[in-house]
Design a protein that fits this description.
129 residues, alpha+beta, 3-stranded antiparallel sheet, two-stranded antiparallel ribbon, 5 strands, rod-shaped
């Protein structure tokens, strides 16, 4: 069955009365509309001229539990940002360590080559004597 929501309002005060499901071919009568009343309004009234609902805006006031959850969410976001910064710093340190290890290896090879050359020169001196 296809249905549509029909919203009722008092014909004198235009105050919202409720909603009901009607068959798709239902004809809207007086005191009824197909315009959905906004959920963020209290004391809703239907304006038949503008075909809009009016009322007092509901101000959201979070509960203590919701406030705590929002604070924890903000703290988690800050911690995630800190972790990302630490990860970047760690990556830079690892790159620096890799460069230093390569430089140490080059220096070791240079010292080994220099030591070998000195040993060859000493051997030549000993042989020459």
């Amino acid at each position: 069955m296809n249905a549509k929501a029909v919203y009722s309002f008092d014909q004198e005060s235009f105050a919202y009365l409720g909603a009901k499901l009607e068959p798709i071919d239902y004809e809207v009568g007086s005191g009824e509309t197909l315009v959905v009343p906004p959920s963020n309004l209290a004391k809703r009234k239907f304006n038949v001229v503008t075909q809009k609902w009016t009322g007092e805006k509901v101000i959201f006031s979070p509960t203590l539990e919701q406030k705590t959850l929002m604070q924890q969410s903000q703290q988690i976001t800050v911690l995630q940002a800190l972790i990302m910064q630490q990860d970047q710093a760690n990556a830079k340190s690892q790159a620096t360590n890799a460069q230093q290890a390569a430089q140490i290896k080059q220096l070791q090879q240079m010292f080994m080559t220099a030591n070998q050359q000195q040993a060859v020169e000493k051997a030549k001196e000993v042989t020459a004597q």
